[in-house]
Amino acid sequence: MDKKTHITIGKLSEKSGVSTDTIRYYEKMGVLGKPERAANGYRVYGQEALRILNFVRRAKVMNFTLEEIKELLTMSEDDHPSVCGDILTMVESKVSAFRQKIEDTKIALKSLERFADDCPGGQVPTKHCPFINYLGNGETK
Questions:
Q1: E strands within the chain?
Q2: Buried b vs exposed e over 46-61: b needs ≥16 C-beta within 10 Å?
Q3: CA distance 49 to 24
Q4: What is the DSSP code (8-state) at residue 82?
């Protein structure tokens, strides 16, 4: 590796927005390859590590698990026989999961709004709170 491309774990963390602990964890989990070591024993990384961390960060935002991200990284290698259809299947699965999460969130929001509207507020004892009663035993009144 060219000395100009060597960066420490701290610089890699700064450039990628990923904590040093998370970088070490990704190494341990096999997402990020083992780094070279400088003469002083410090980890040193190249541009590929930064690319991988950015890849992981973006994939995590889209709710891919670490195992799925490892699979996507493997699929993205030039010599891997994957086809885009394999990746599309994974993407469509995430789309479906997000749609379900949106529907679940809408239901939860309506319930919370209803509880907020029904709440007597003020100094009413919590035993008369519709929200607490619902959480405790499923009863709304």
A1: 7-8, 36-37, 43-45
A2: beebbebbeebeebee
A3: 12
A4: -
User: pLDDT value at position 8?
Assistant: 93
DSSP 8-state code for residue 35: P
The chain-wide mean pLDDT, for the chain, equals: 90
Degrees, nearest 5: CA angle 138-140-141: 130
CB distance 7 to 15 below 8 Å: yes
Return the residue matching tokens 């959480």. Answer: 135
Residue in the structure block whose two tokens are 């491309």: 5
pLDDT of residue 132: 87
The first and second tokens of residue 138, run together, are 């499923």
